[in-house]
Write a structure and sequence with these properties.
This protein has helices spanning 50-53, 80-93, 148-163; strands at residues 56-59, 64-73, 76-77, 104-106, 112-119, 129-130, 135-142, 169-174, 187-194. By secondary structure, it is of the alpha+beta class. The radius of gyration is 22 Å and the shape is globular.
Length: 198
């Protein structure tokens, strides 16, 4: 795909103020240009207390999720945001509520990856309703691009050492968005789940 910022015949470069110059007109070289960096945009991404989430065991006996899947290309999730919106809409349709900072967990898979959204007040039974039970050992980590797999393996090793065997599933909760990822160094929660821990 061509670089959309490259100069091509017939294209007009857009000024910093967002207005394109009219053809045949000259730029006003005296116009002030704001070179100050924009402050980080506010977002609603969850911020977890390390004392409550890092290297902590959580009881999942009363936690309910709504399960769906998202497409992946060699393990990389595609359409993650749209899938998240779809599962949130489904939760609303069945009368479930999404708790504040409810977990949104992404599982593993090369071409399809499971996704769990934490919900409350869900019907006892229904398509996609999951009550996994057991416990979850969690680690709160910084995982910049290319480091997530290493952090997953680190969590898996820590859980195996703690419980004497590997977890039944490992989930990832991405805690940052495009606006805050760099500021928070791609903060992520890794969840090692045990259906029957002991």
């Amino acid at each position: 795909m061509a670089d959309p910022t490259s100069e091509q015949p017939g294209r007009v470069r857009v000024r910093i103020d967002g207005k394109a110059p009219r053809r045949g007109s000259r730029h006003d070289s005296q116009a002030p240009v704001n070179l100050e960096p924009e402050p980080p945009a506010e977002c609603d991404c969850p911020r977890l207390d390390p004392e409550e989430w890092n290297e902590v065991e959580n009881d999942w006996s009363d936690i309910t999720f709504l399960k769906t899947t998202t497409t992946a290309l060699l393990g990389v999730p595609m359409g993650y945001d749209s899938t998240r919106k779809e599962v949130a809409a489904k939760a609303n349709a069945i009368g479930a509520t999404i708790p504040e900072d409810g977990m949104l967990l992404l599982g593993s898979g090369r071409f399809r990856r499971p996704l769990l959204l934490e919900v409350e007040d869900a019907p006892e039974h229904g398509k996609g309703i999951e009550r996994p039970g057991g416990i979850a050992f969690t680690m709160l980590v910084e995982a910049p691009w290319g480091q997530i797999q290493g952090k997953v393996e680190e969590t898996r090793r820590a859980a195996t050492e703690r419980y004497g065997r590997g977890p039944d599933n490992v989930w990832v909760w991405y805690l940052t968005c495009r606006e805050c990822s760099h500021e928070r160094n791609f903060e992520t929660l890794i969840v090692a789940h045990y259906r029957h821990p002991r």
